[in-house]
Amino acid sequence: MSRPRGIGALRRAAVAAALLVAAGVGAGVALDWADKAYPPPLDDALALSRQVLDRDGGLLRAYTTPDGLWRLPVRLDEVDPDYVRMLLAYEDRRFRSHHGVDPVALLRAAGQFVANGGRIVSGGSTITMQVARLIEPRTERSLSAKLRQMARALQIERRLGKDEILTLYLTLAPYGGNLEGVRAASLAWFGREPKKLTLAQSALLVALPQSPESRRPDRRHDEARIARDRVLGRMRDAGLIPASEIDRASGTQVPSRRLELPDLAAHTADLAVRTHPDEATLRLTIDGGVQARLEKLARETAARLGPRQSLAMVLADGRSGEVVAAVGSTGHLDAARAGAIDMTRAVRSPGSTLKPFIYGLAFEDALVAAETLIDDAPADFSGYRPRNFDREFMGEVSIRQALQFSLNVPAVRLLEAVGPQRLLSRLRRGGAGIELPPGGAPGLAIGLGGAGVTLRDLVQLYTGFVHGGTAVRLHDGSEADPLPGFGHPVLEAGPSWRVADILAGVEAPQAAPRLPIAYKTGTSYGYRDAWAVGFDGRHVLGVWVGRPDAVPVPGLSGITTAAPLLFEAFARSGVGTTPFPPAPHGVAERARRDLPFALRKYKSGDEVALARTGGSPPPRIVYPPQGARVALGGGGAGRMMPLVIKLQGGVAPYRLIANGEPQHKSTRRRVIDWNPDSEGASTLTVMDAEGRATSVSVFIDAD
């Protein structure tokens, strides 16, 4: 009996369906295998520029990729949403609905190709297909290349969400030259982040990736304008933007030159990148706005400095230790001034900038009060004879005046009392890496600059004056590891406040902005370094000026060179000024008449001992100084003029011994004339009535 024809047809249909399903499953399995075997190279395509950000996330400095590209990371929420809408409307209207390939766009492109005699009007590529081309660049334009893009687009859509794909496009799209990504393009062509763009700017950024080299605004200005206006016209025709706004945008200028990307805090940024080689994005404590203003001031100041002179500035929050700005030179590309050297970290002689800590220790020991009198007169400290910057002496002054006028002899008198080793210990307790001259033992010269310190460490020490005497460790985000704070103050709170109060009374330099800040200046030996460190109730700003190669600069000084820059930098930084804190509990200022008798006039330990015994200080030769070369020619008939020897202290009568030979007459005067027999080295000794002696070695020159 024959089978019904309907049943046979059903069976054949079922078999055919089964074969189709099997073929579909097989094709699906094959495609899935191929997808896994040949995945799109997404990870390899994302070599991004390293970037260093400021405290608020603003770009300070970026670095090109190993291939020399500016390709900055970007998030979708960091891009103007109006630009994104314009991009999708122009490039891929169905981006949110298709799966990587848009059949409608392909059919439209094919129709336009046929209708226009084989001329390509639109390519039909989706955003995803363009991403596929960007991660696997190919030079040929062929059907096989287009098919590969389509296959890759399908693969990408399986792996990434729409926002991720769009972010990839915004990161990789070319914008001319070595610019890739919308952030680099916006910064280079408009000098701004793409967070907020004008209509004209958005249209130009939409147009450039289609033909980035032939539309580069700096080289093909007219072509760039035409392409931008074409995008604007499409938006008008689609009814997406009112014609009035389109006309206004079309009338704006297209940029004609490419701008430099942000390049702030180069020295600190470079250090951070070296310290953290595996981090793509680094954030510093620096305030980008303050940094930009101080760098501009540095460039302006460079024009007023002598040749090869540089400068450095460090502005820090004295309460938190955060570095707000750090300028390492007049410009890191200024080769004539060795701008590549970060002078904020260079060890230099600090001049008189350490004197405030000497006075702070003297206040701690109750050796003096602010109104105590002290002698500023020639003095000999075992052969060390300090002189003031102007080589003059003021006589009897108050401690307040001695610090405000930065007198050297009073500072050394107090340092002799508190001890150089104790001062060094306190400075190192504050985290300062003080470097001593060869030999290692600190002497009295440390108080006048006879040591080495960096500008950063000096600013760190001065944070104690706004932090109750305790220095706060500076940090800027470039450090390899977090560093612990300090467990001990540099100065006690009361003495620290007293020093700050005295420094707040120092007059500002002439023509400088009048600001309520305290400050101290310093000039190193030989006019090699000029310093000024100032502070208010919160911020500390340090300034250094000099030559990086340490060559002397005649006329360089802290008060005339660095101090005006300090006040200008404080005024232009934009941080404002914070009032000084009130005096700590129990600290009160007293007039000299209200001081205990022992604090009305400072006397050294030796002077006090001598006063108690009714004795006198030992004799000292105050002229000529030790090691002096004295010219005594001009006496007539080939004879030399007499050498005038000046004494201090001792008990008359005095006897002179020259080169081991006692002179015939003793004298009660403290001025002795000596007639040398010949030129050359001589040793002069003066002995007083009590047998105490003082000696100097000099060189007599007959010329």
TrEMBL record:
Keywords: Carboxypeptidase, Glycosyltransferase, Hydrolase, Multifunctional enzyme, Protease, Transferase
Catalytic reaction(s) noted: [GlcNAc-(1->4)-Mur2Ac(oyl-L-Ala-gamma-D-Glu-L-Lys-D-Ala-D-Ala)](n)-di-trans,octa-cis-undecaprenyl diphosphate + beta-D-GlcNAc-(1->4)-Mur2Ac(oyl-L-Ala-gamma-D-Glu-L-Lys-D-Ala-D-Ala)-di-trans,octa-cis-undecaprenyl diphosphate = [GlcNAc-(1->4)-Mur2Ac(oyl-L-Ala-gamma-D-Glu-L-Lys-D-Ala-D-Ala)](n+1)-di-trans,octa-cis-undecaprenyl diphosphate + di-trans,octa-cis-undecaprenyl diphosphate + H(+)
UniProt KW Protease keyword: yes
Residue intervals of the Glycosyl transferase family domain: 68-235
Record-linked Gene3D superfamilies: Biosynthetic peptidoglycan transglycosylase-like (1.10.3810.10), DD-peptidase/beta-lactamase superfamily (3.40.710.10)
GO molecular function terms noted in the UniProt entry: carboxypeptidase activity; penicillin binding; peptidoglycan glycosyltransferase activity
The family this protein is said to belong to: In the C-terminal section; belongs to the transpeptidase family.
Name of this chain's protein: peptidoglycan glycosyltransferase
Organism: Hoeflea olei
